[in-house]
Fold this protein.
Amino acid sequence: MNPTITIAAGALRGSVDGGVASFKGIPYAQPPCGPLRWRAPQPVIPWEGTRDATEFGPDCTQAPGDFETLRTTPSEDCLYLNVWKPQDATEHDALPVMVWIHGGGYVGGGTSSPVYDGSSFAADGIVVVTLNYRLGRFGFFAHPALTAAKEGPVGNFGYMDQIQALEWVRDNVAAFGGDPRRVTLVGQSAGGESALHLMTSPVVGDLFHRVIAMSGGGRRALLDRPMTDGSVGNASAAGMDKRFAVKRGVFGDGTDDLAKLRELAPATVAGRDNVGILGAKKLLGGSVAGVPIVDGDLVVGEPYEHFLSGAAKQIPIMIGSTAFDLPLHFPPSKIRPLKWFDDQQQAKAAYHDSAGRSPLDHVKTLVAVSTDMTMHEPAHFVASTMKKQGQPAWLYRFTYTAQCRRPDSLEQGHSGELPFLFQTLESTYPDQIADEDRATAAAFHAYVVNFVTHGDPNGTGLPAWPQIVPDEYDLMNFTLDDGPVFGPEPRAGVELVARAQERDLANAADGRRREG
């Protein structure tokens, strides 16, 4: 018999599989279409009767690409979320809650991906919520006509969706057996950066109580642009979005112009910017449309400013990256990347190949330095800074790669840890899963279950994972062959990058003082 649950908007009928109940395609806002395109998410209109919740709602409209397998036809009507819970959980149980924000560079992805199935977490006593949010120009758009219309906040509609979904969790998760006072926000890539932005935003209230940020950076935003005052290589959202409109025959910023923009076909708004094209533009130093906006309200400055000032939400955090993660930020000279470091000889020694030659060839050196700048060092910075401010903080690196991918891949790439996290290895490695793969997945998953449940990843049967010691460089490494091992940072360049980052911050502060 299919389970039913009643929430504020009405009754839902879900499904049961293996002791886990799931409720999919639950609307948490009205469809953001027509006159609601580029508006803050509007409250759900209650429904009559019992709504079927056995199938995913549409993932959000996006450009064609091969980022991940989606099981829906993407649509502009996409503000849906999904819940997994232990079958017998009731409103009296007050179970821990995990809210998942998917990645995809803010232009791709969706919760229907089989990788993100929440069943394994629900089987471990956690209520799991996965959410869709508007992507690309649907989610991040700041044409002057929107500002002139004064319909509400402008720009970061995708982040507004995430906040609306968290408010839905606060108001409704108890019906599924979840405790709205024990919410852990978990995200990867764009989702990891989203978690950090929500953690540092001045407008986000007490909607979550722990954070796991995976490959989300932590110093400078991975992807953002100013609202108005742009520059070469960093064009403003208002300017870029106005140029987009002009190319589609919309030249002004009046009500008629806004109406024309809202009449554009979804495929026209989405354009061609999938994850691959976005990455290429970033590598070449071009401006990227359809990504978060520094609006002075929801997103105020860079993440590092909030962490250093203590303005970030003071809560426990687990943060980390994969061994071969994304390079999105680059040293001042892409031609001579090691010139950025004060000690050239030390940098050459740090960035060498496996044969001991120093340095690596130019492209590999640039990628290695940039990956440390983008992902590895910023994760250390966030964990160390939060720990200095008295908050529990754990740092990790996910190096393990599936046995079937070896020897070609001996460092885990961006997003490669996700099927291990969710224990959905079959979604990525059908018929090729080794015992070693399952063991690593079980350990990584168990650490996250413990953190979500108790605010500490440690637990019975797992190697001890100490909290970070500020300004030291030990971490938990999910290694290729030895399981989880706590020990020294495996990349010699990370500490050098930290010194260079701190030097640049100090120099910038001195410059501002002189100007003042």
In short: The chain has a mean pLDDT of 94. The chain is about 30% helix and 15% strand.
